[in-house]
């Protein structure tokens, strides 16, 4: 039944297919794919390769294979983060061994688009799915030229904090503004010896998300040869100066994230909180089991309390690579696991990926579920509210690997030494402009 | 290599390979001070491995909370071993087999090729032989990892990346092995023996396989061990060549397991599994080393002195 | 880089043994010797000469994300010679060379002499223990030491805390190079020791028994008879260490996971070449770096040999 249902839905969508003038489209895009082409593709025994780091994604794949018995999906984990993209890039360059479908974080979509590596999914009618996803998320995967991936999960930023430690410092709620946050940091340090949070020196994306929250988009890319880079503007410096003051007053630590040291500090309460997206709880629940029940979730502190806003950190999508020999089946895999109710619910409830689908976010069964780890708080609903406040437009540069690694060498190194991060922004800016110019871009 | 080899020549002229099994009058004139210093050093080599052994009996909680050089509250070795072998559907065993395959095939192939070439250089003179040998000698100094990058690019344009060949073929070339075997062949295979075989009407290759090779076995094994360790320990080459986790050797697999816990996007923390996996992966090697140790020496005492 | 070594191998001081060896055998079948060498040489050319040539070729081009590939001559080399990241890595390896390599080789030589002297208790076991780390893959060794250095459950920290002392930050910016030197020393002392020990065992006893009868002290025998006798083996370890040092990759690559900001992209030249190729996606520049790196190593190895040769000549005079 599932098969027939989706096939019908597909053809419905496919007939309403947009013109799809993207690079990946080719000759096919002119003609919508007919229902029988879809049926044929999905009933022909096909082997698909899927590169992803999401743990236990095999479960969702199993559902997909159940719905389409002719499909045989091989899941490969080639590493996480940078390693994944490096492998992907080398496979694409050698023209050999690239997967059909790949996990891609939103910020990397322009990077892979630059090399025409992603298939334009609007030819299959993907544009019509847009309305069902959160607006800012859809803006990340789709532009005027095409639809480049199907959103899987998102990372609206909030503030996870230890209620008990804040209470010990005499605070009965999370700070609402950044001024309050700085005062609270002093109190927490004085009363409990803990840091109010850790700004990981090696997490450029956390800082970028905080810029996003403040309405600053330092990057721009016109989809062709022109980029804009402004990571050392007065606005950016103001934000970084705020954090630098806290760091230099020893109120916020800058330990590298995801190391055993960092996990340990979370587990033993050295950090009283963590400015982190909705996926943060996964990491807490695994390693900080002993602190279950003591955590709470709140929105980020605000610059303007009257106008609460947030940014996004992480989350990812599934893209079909232009080199795929089975584009229809690959698209259906990406669409099916990220759009159909059964797999998307499973992602949200078993892998704790924060959903990108509006329907799921509004589903009371999901949103109003009390979470023990957070002392019975309805965390999902809290983050659903935050998700609605994420600034809907944010652009990236088409060479994010370099952007991030260059951050670590400059600003990150300054954080590590608790030194002049504000000054390091100028160096970062210079490195990015130099790189972009060297690579032939026009920098605005 | 000039200096080293010329000096080696002298040592050789002085008459080298006589074993001296009973040179030391055992039990007498032992120095306590010397023993203490040597054993302090030996402990430096041992203690990290002891820590690894103890740490692999702990669960993640104990790892963080108990003293490193004593056992934790729970004895989790078996659980850890289980979780190592259960990791991603038992892929650890696969990695171990891959490592065996890559190291075994490369080492046997490399030492065989090196033995043949070393013998050829030592016992024959043919047009270009000195030039060729000199180039091989020079290649000992080329950093192999610096070659890995262009090799990768070549392989990738030939569509050979992500195959077992991408690991095995580059590992078959051991210039140092050729050098070692040339020295070894020159010393261990008397020309008169080859001459005698020739008089008997044996072909050159038959002579090599039936007469000469036997005499070169200790050197062969030394080169084999060098090549084995080199491939077993290789990380850079498989890291860039391979994409499928099914093809990974242990080194790349373990490093990936480690990094799975250390980056964003939904990984789990696997400290105890990584530690136990590391421990399991070195146990067979250490055992093999203890048994094969004398072979390192026997081949080297010929090669290195003159090296 | 082959050229320099060719000329050195063919210099007047060329080994007597190499002249002696091919003297007789070639009489029978000149072609047979060639056949013995061919299988190796084919692979040698395919896996070493061709990639080397390819690297040289690649290094003359430039590939832009926008605009594609173009010939730029030696621009990449010129750039590398003023590239702070590359020079910084080379400088760091220079430190390795003057600090870590001597320590490692001294320890190896000391152990080899001590064990060979027969004056150490349970010398055989000590020798095995010292050699054991060589069996541990660099990846595992680095992972393990990473944990040992750990600021939390690392036993070094625990020991300091138990003694009431401030534990050192072994993974900080100022200490990471030293920590890395320690890992490499731990891994390779035993390996170098075995090479030297094997050479010591091959010294004919007569050489120093006479000296012992004359009443020379053991230390004197070690210094003036044994060490000179195994000089070739020591030179071999020096050259291998030079090569090994400039190839360091596993250690920075794995420590990068636990000390991410401390390990910079250019921490070692080889790690830099990797990052340039795979992060910056600049294969051409990476090829130039790899090529320069090979050149640095070849020059250094040559200098090492030359200086030892000169020292030898002095002694002979």
Label the structural class of chain B.
mainly alpha
Q: Based on DSSP secondary structure assignment, what is the total number of beta strands of chain B? A: 0
SS element count, helices of chain B:
15
The gross shape of chain A turns out to be globular
Fold-level CATH name of chain B: MetI-like fold
Major sheet of chain B: size, sense and barrel closure?
Answer: none
Task: Write structural notes for this entry.
In chain A, 44% of the residues lie in helices and 14% in strands. Chain A is built from 19 helices and twelve strands. In chain A, the strands form three sheets. In chain A, strands 1, 2, 3, 6, 9, 10 and 11 form a seven-stranded mixed sheet that branches. In chain A, strands 7-8-12 form a three-stranded mixed sheet, with helices on one face. In chain A, strands 4-5 form a two-stranded antiparallel ribbon. Chain B has a single domain, classed as MetI-like fold (Orthogonal Bundle). In chain B, helix 4 packs across helix 15 and helix 6 crosses helix 9. Chain C has a domain of 184 residues: MetI-like fold, CATH 1.10.3720. Chain C is mostly helical and 317 residues long. In chain C, helix 5 runs antiparallel to helix 6, helix 6 packs across helix 9 and helix 12 packs antiparallel against helix 15. Chains in contact: A-B, A-C, B-C. At the B-C interface, helix 1, helix 2, helix 3, helix 5 and helix 6 of B face helix 1, helix 2, helix 3, helix 5 and helix 6 of C.
Briefly, what is this?
The complex is a heterotrimer of chains A (444), B (307) and C (317). Chain B has 307 residues and is mainly alpha-helical. Helix content of chain B is 72%, strand content 0%.
Present the secondary structure layout.
The complex is a heterotrimer of chains A (444), B (307) and C (317).
Chain A: H1 2-15, H2 35-43, E1 46-51, H3 58-67, E2 71-76, H4 82-94, E3 101-105, H5 109-114, H6 135-141, E4 142-143, E5 146-147, E6 150-162, H7 163-168, H8 178-192, H9 204-213, E7 219-221, E8 226-229, H10 234-248, H11 260-267, E9 273-277, H12 280-287, E10 295-299, E11 312-320, H13 327-339, H14 341-350, H15 358-362, H16 364-367, H17 379-387, H18 400-416, H19 421-438, E12 442-443
Parallel strand pairs in A: 1-2, 1-3, 8-12
Antiparallel strand pairs in A: 3-11, 4-5, 6-9, 6-10, 6-11, 7-8
Chain B: H1 2-13, H2 32-55, H3 60-65, H4 77-86, H5 91-123, H6 129-139, H7 144-157, H8 165-171, H9 175-188, H10 191-199, H11 204-215, H12 217-233, H13 236-241, H14 250-260, H15 271-306
Helix pairs in contact in B: 2-15, 4-15, 5-8, 5-9, 5-12, 6-9, 9-12, 9-15, 10-11, 12-15, 14-15
Chain C: H1 2-9, H2 16-20, H3 30-58, E1 61-64, E2 68-71, H4 75-81, H5 84-116, H6 123-131, H7 138-149, H8 155-162, H9 176-201, H10 206-213, H11 218-229, H12 231-246, H13 250-258, H14 269-278, H15 283-316
Antiparallel strand pairs in C: 1-2
Region (Disordered) (chain C): 1-25
Membrane topology (chain C): Multi-pass membrane protein
Family (chain C): Belongs to the binding-protein-dependent transport system permease family.
């Amino acid at each position: 039944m599932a098969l027939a249902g989706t096939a019908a839905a597909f053809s419905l969508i496919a007939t309403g297919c947009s013109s799809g003038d993207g690079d990946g489209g080719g000759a096919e895009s002119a003609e919508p794919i007919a229902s029988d082409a879809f049926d044929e593709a999905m009933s022909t025994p096909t082997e698909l390769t899927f590169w992803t780091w999401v743990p236990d994604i095999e479960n969702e794949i199993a559902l997909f294979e159940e719905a389409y018995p002719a499909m045989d999906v091989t899941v490969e984990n080639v590493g996480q983060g940078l390693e994944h993209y490096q492998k992907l890039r080398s496979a694409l360059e050698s023209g050999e061994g690239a997967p059909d479908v790949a996990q891609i974080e939103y910020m990397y979509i322009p990077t892979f688009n630059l090399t025409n590596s992603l298939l334009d999914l609007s030819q299959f009618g993907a544009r019509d799915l847009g309305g069902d996803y959160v607006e800012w998320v859809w803006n990340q995967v789709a532009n005027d030229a095409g639809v480049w991936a199907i959103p899987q999960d998102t990372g609206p930023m909030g503030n996870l904090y230890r209620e008990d430690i804040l209470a010990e410092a005499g605070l009965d709620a999370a700070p609402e503004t950044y001024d309050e946050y700085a005062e609270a940091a002093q109190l927490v340090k004085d009363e409990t010896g803990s840091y109010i949070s850790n700004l990981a020196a090696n997490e450029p994306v956390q800082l970028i998300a905080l810029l996003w929250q403040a309405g600053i988009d330092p990057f721009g890319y016109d989809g062709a040869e022109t980029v804009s880079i402004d990571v050392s503007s007065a606005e950016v410096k103001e934000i970084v100066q705020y954090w630098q003051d806290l760091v230099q007053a020893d109120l916020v630590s800058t330990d590298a994230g995801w190391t055993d040291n960092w996990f340990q500090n979370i587990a033993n309460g050295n950090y009283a909180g963590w400015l982190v997206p909705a996926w943060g709880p996964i990491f807490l629940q695994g390693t900080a089991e002993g602190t279950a029940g003591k955590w709470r979730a709140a929105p980020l502190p605000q610059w303007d309390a009257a106008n609460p806003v947030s940014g996004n950190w992480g989350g990812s999508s599934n893209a079909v690579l232009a080199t795929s020999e089975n584009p229809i089946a690959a698209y259906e895999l990406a669409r099916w696991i990220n759009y159909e109710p059964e797999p998307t619910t499973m992602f949200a409830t078993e892998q704790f990926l924060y959903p990108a689908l509006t329907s799921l976010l509004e589903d009371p069964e999901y949103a109003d579920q009390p979470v023990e780890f957070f002392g019975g708080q309805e965390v999902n609903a809290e983050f659903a509210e935050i998700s609605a406040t994420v600034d809907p437009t944010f652009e990236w540069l088409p060479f994010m690997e370099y952007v991030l690694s260059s951050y670590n060498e400059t600003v990150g190194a300054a954080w590590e030494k608790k030194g002049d991060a504000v000054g390091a922004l100028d160096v970062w800016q210079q490195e990015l402009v130099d790189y972009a110019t060297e690579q032939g871009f026009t920098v605005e | 290599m000039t200096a080293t080899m010329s000096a080696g020549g002298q040592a050789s002229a002085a008459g080298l390979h006589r074993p001296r099994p009973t040179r030391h009058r055992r039990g007498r004139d032992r120095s306590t001070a010397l023993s203490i210093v040597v054993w302090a050093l030996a402990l430096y080599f041992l203690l990290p491995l002891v820590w690894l052994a103890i740490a692999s009996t702990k669960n993640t909680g104990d790892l963080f909370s108990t003293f490193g050089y004593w056992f934790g509250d729970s004895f989790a070795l078996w659980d850890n071993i289980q979780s190592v072998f259960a990791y991603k559907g038992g892929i650890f065993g696969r990695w171990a087999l891959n490592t065996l395959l890559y190291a075994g095939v490369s080492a046997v192939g490399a030492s065989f090729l090196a033995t043949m070439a070393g013998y050829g250089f030592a016992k024959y003179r043919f047009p270009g032989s000195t030039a060729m040998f000199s180039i091989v000698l020079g290649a000992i100094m080329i950093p192999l990892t610096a070659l890995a990058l262009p090799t990768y690019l070549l392989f990738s344009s030939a569509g050979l990346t992500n195959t077992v060949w991408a690991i095995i073929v580059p590992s078959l070339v051991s210039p140092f092995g050729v050098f070692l075997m040339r020295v070894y062949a020159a010393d261990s295979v008397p020309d008169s023996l080859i001459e005698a075989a020739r008089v008997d009407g044996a072909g050159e290759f038959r002579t090599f396989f039936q007469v000469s090779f036997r005499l070169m076995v200790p050197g062969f094994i030394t080169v084999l061990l060098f090549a084995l360790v080199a491939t077993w320990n290789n990380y850079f080459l498989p890291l860039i060549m391979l994409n499928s986790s099914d093809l990974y050797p242990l080194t790349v697999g373990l490093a990936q397991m480690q990094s799975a816990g250390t980056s964003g996007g939904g990984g789990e923390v696997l400290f105890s599994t990584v530690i136990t996996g590391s421990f399991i992966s070195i146990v067979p090697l250490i055992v093999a080393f203890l048994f094969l140790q004398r072979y390192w020496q026997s081949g080297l005492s010929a090669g290195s002195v003159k090296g | 880089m082959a050229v320099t070594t060719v000329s050195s191998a063919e210099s007047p001081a060329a080994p007597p043994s190499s002249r002696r060896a091919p003297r007789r055998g070639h009489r029978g079948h000149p072609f047979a010797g060639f056949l013995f060498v061919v299988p190796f040489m084919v692979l040698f050319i395919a896996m070493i000469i061709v990639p080397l040539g390819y690297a040289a070729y690649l290094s003359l081009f430039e590939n832009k994300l926008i605009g594609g590939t173009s010939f730029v001559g030696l621009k990449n080399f010129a750039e590398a010679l003023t590239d702070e990241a590359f020079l910084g890595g080379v400088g760091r390896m220079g430190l390795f060379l003057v600090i870590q390599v001597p320590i490692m080789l001294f320890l190896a030589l000391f152990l080899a002499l001590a064990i060979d002297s027969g004056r150490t208790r349970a010398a055989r076991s000590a020798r095995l223990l010292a050699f054991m780390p060589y069996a541990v893959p660099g990846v595992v060794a680095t992972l393990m030491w990473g944990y040992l250095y750990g600021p939390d459950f690392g036993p070094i920290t625990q020991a300091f805390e138990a003694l009431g002392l401030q534990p050192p930050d072994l993974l900080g910016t100022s200490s990471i190079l030293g920590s890395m030197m320690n890992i490499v020393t731990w891994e390779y002392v035993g390996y170098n020791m075995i090479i030297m020990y094997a050479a010591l065992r091959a010294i004919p006893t007569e050489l120093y028994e006479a000296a012992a009868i004359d009443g020379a002290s053991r230390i004197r025998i070690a210094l003036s008879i044994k060490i000179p006798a195994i000089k070739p083996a020591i030179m071999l370890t020096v050259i291998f260490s030079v090569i090994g040092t400039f190839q360091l990759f596993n250690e920075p690559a794995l420590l990068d996971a636990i000390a991410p900001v401390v390990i910079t992209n250019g921490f070692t030249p080889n790690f830099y070449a990797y990052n340039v190729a795979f992060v910056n996606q600049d294969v051409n520049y990476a090829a130039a770096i790899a090529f320069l790196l090979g050149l640095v190593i070849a020059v250094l190895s040559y200098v090492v040999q030359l200086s030892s040769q000169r020292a030898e000549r002095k002694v002979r005079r």
